[in-house]
Amino acid sequence: MLGPETARDRSQGGPREGSFVKTALAVAHKDLLVELRAKEILLAMAFFAAVVVLLFAFAFTHEGRANTDATAGILWIAVALAGTLGLSRAFEREREGDTLRALLLAPAPRSAIYVGKLAGIVLLMLVTEACTVPLVSLLFDAPLLAAERLPHLWLLLVLGTVGYAAVGSLFGALLARTRGRDILLGILLYPIIVPVLIAGARGTEALLARPLDRATAWFWTELLLVFDTVFITVALWVYEPLMASE
Amino acid sequence: MDTPFDRVTARGVSKVYGRQRALGAVNLELAAGEAVALLGPNGAGKSTLLGILGTLVRPSTGELLFSDEPPAAWHRAGIGVLGHESLCYGELTGRENLLFFARLYSVARPAERSAEWLARLGIEHAADRPARTYSRGMLQRLALGRALIHGPRLLLLDEPFTGLDREGVALLRSLLVAERDRGAILLIISHEFASLVDLATRALVLRRGRLVHDGPAPLTADGWRVLYEEQGSSAARPAGAAGQTASPSGAGG
Q1: pLDDT higher than threshold 90 for residue A202
Q2: ipTM score here?
Q3: What confidence score (pLDDT) does residue B234 get?
Q4: Which pLDDT belongs to residue B238?
Q5: Among residues A66, A99, A206, which one has the least CA distance to residue A148?
Q6: With contacts defined as CB-CB under 8 Å, which chain B residues touch A177?
Q7: A9 vs B151: CB contact, 8 Å cut-off?
Q8: Rounded to 5 degrees, what angle do the CA atoms A21, A160, A20 make?
Q9: Nearest CB to B77: which of A16, A38, A103?
Q10: Which of A10, A111, A190, B170 is deepest in the core (most CB within 10 A)?
Q11: Beta strand spans in chain B (E)
């Protein structure tokens, strides 16, 4: 039995299944719009990353000269720590108004929600990295902004960020409704993303070598691509059953 | 896909959390155009049943069917949920919230539909204010828009009248009656008995996870109260002793 409004529903938009891409875009757009209003996650991440870099700069500076060997590691540690802060807050936001439940009710594959959240977090992390890279370059006197190194560095950062956020978004969503989620996120996330951080740091190190070691940099870049593919594939596969297992 | 389903069936549906049985084996069939009130004391399993019907909670045993089909993503296109929380984003304006959910549900002409609903809900004047600045009643109206904007076939409402003023209750009742009359299935958890009169067509009572009463809706607020006291309260008599409603039928588990 459907009432007389059925015809009207057809023209005005009755229930329909959402497409994967449209749903993912809507979720990512919503996350960025919320952040644009709150300016909370981005500022916190950028500030935290800057403090981490600054602390390391003081710790690794001897007789007025920074230890350039540590540059790559410090950049990736700052990215990882700031990323955890962002992930935590992004899912805390969904928990506060129980809006994660509203997302899970959407008539699209739940993996589309995952991809939307992932895209939003990746973008926020990349903006943070855009602020962190010049700071690291300045404080460690590292040629990160050199024209022959910068494009490849960004490729490494994008791939590393995607791999990091792929695992982080999965655990962030899973832990959103559990107690002790902030502690659990770190405990679960870091052991899994260690390969991403190592590949990112080693690739960056190769880019900073004098002369530039492009072959090694590409090796780690390709490895990051493999990690991303594996992490995203597994996450897309397990997200739906895990989110429905309440 | 205009009609995701017109009937919802729960067969032997139960839910166990650890050692705690939240819901016994419930058998239930909800048909288009029914407005079903679900009563029961705290911990009776009402919200769990709502969660299962909304596909948010996976039953431990039994099966849920939408027009004889197991739940799939596209069935959720026909489900609307209104609960204790608004499920809206405080940083977004009322308009942006409705627009987002309209897009999420692939509603045609989402901007136009959002504007229509804001006007219909009487919150047009606050449409461009962040939802976090809304009063409890305004937020409940916005949540109602979120739940209805995609024209759901199954509306799951958990204490929908809470926080609304008299005008808000009247508006909500009129919208729910319209939804029922157009063929939507309504499942309403409410203890605002007066608001159920002339709205609900059927009454279910859950007690300790078991469906102990399933019959036509009482005609008066007192009738609802008597039904609840006889069947729903923890000191209730055994099933089958309902006041002025029909004898229990199809009681699950």
Answers
A1: yes
A2: 0.82
A3: 57
A4: 46
A5: A206
A6: none
A7: yes
A8: 10
A9: A16
A10: A111
A11: 7-17, 20-31, 35-39, 61-66, 79-82, 154-158, 185-189, 202-207, 210-216
Q: How many helices (H) and strands (E) does chain A have?
A: 9, 2
Beta strand spans in A84-236 (E) = none
Nearest Cα residue in chain A from B179? A3
Structure tokens at B101: 């959910």
Q: What is the pTM of this model?
A: 0.84
Q: Do the strands B35-39 and B185-189 form a parallel or antiparallel pair, or are they unpaired? A: parallel
Enter the tokens of residue A86: 């962002």
Residue identified by tokens 């600045």 is B133
Hey, are the CB atoms on B3 and A11 less than 8 Å from each other? no
Q: State the maximum Cα–Cα separation within chain B, in Å, rounded to a whole number.
A: 53
Indicate whether A246 pLDDT > 90: no
Structure-derived torsion over alpha carbons of residues A222, A227, A232, A237, reported in degrees to the nearest 10: 130
Query: DSSP assignment, residue A56?
Result: H
- Measured CA to CA, the distance from residue A218 to residue B24 in angstroms comes to 59
- Residue in chain B closest to A111 (alpha carbons) equals B73
CB A181 within 8 A of CB A167: no
3-state secondary structure of B130: strand
Using a CB-CB cut-off of 8 Å, the residues of chain B touching A18 are 77, 104-106
Peptide bond into B238 cis (omega under 30): no
Chain A residues within 8 A of B87 when measuring between CB atoms: 97-99, 101-102
